[in-house]
Amino acid sequence: MNLKTLRYFIAVADSGSLTAAAAAIPIAQPALTRQMRDLEEEMGVQLLQRLPRGVRLTPAGVTLYESAQRILSETARLERRLAHSQEKVRAPVVLGASPTLARLLLPRLLESCIDAMDELELRAREAFTPALLDWLERGMIDMAVLTNPEPGRSLSFQPLLGEPFALVSHAQMRIGPVVSVTQLARIPLLMTSLHRSLVDRQLASLGKSLQVRAEIDSVDSIRELVMRGRWATIMPVSVFRGDPQAQPLVMSEISGVQLNRLLVLATRIDPRPNPSLSLVHELVVAEFSRMERLGIFSFAAGDANAAVPLEGAPSSRR
Prior knowledge:
Number of strands: 12
Order of helices and strands: HHHEEHEHEHEEEHEHEHEEEH
CATH architecture of the largest domain: 3-Layer(aba) Sandwich
Number of domains: 3
């Protein structure tokens, strides 16, 4: 058994068909069929159940599939480390993130990067999307997590996830767990300029507008002012997740319109291989997948230890 055979086996399992896997790899189907039969003989068990149309894994095949994925993942990690050790100049990887994401993303990501590659140096820069785009295009950062970036730029974009906005207010304002668009227009708001522009565009088609008392491009300042109980804010639902200072705050779902943001991972287009950059890119995507599974980017928080919901946050209605 070798790594190539394991890759072939995973391709067959993922496609559910020897024909489809042979076309995707690519390899001649008779050769792929022979490889799978040789693998079964070597392992001494049946791995694939042949069906009239395609194949499916036997229980032994499922066990091998899970082990093969771990083996190939660890092999790829080792190859990255070896390639990185040969680099003459170990330039740091500079990641940009918005103030609404840095607290959630960076601590665990930094630990994952250090665990994956001891020599890797990760640097983080915090700013809103317009500044991050400028820094990325000028080469001041290597990658950035952006909110609804403008199309047409000479960058590589990978969508990460969509996240709804919520109305966040102090409990003393007595705003319920669900707020209609009509009610929203009567609530005094503080907002960042980026979030205001996104929400304004999404409300324009309904002929609705917001009562924004001030634009403040500081999430911390908005949090402090909302804590005083006179104003509310509209923020992505993840912003105050797990924040112990946010306990007096109520997160309300906005009905009658889907207000959301799209998070995108952006890098410059560079044909030269960069193992460090590829590793960080992979770990950023993995971390967002983990947080999404926990419900951090939805109204339903999946893990109370990882993401504590705000007091009064409603359960998901979807």
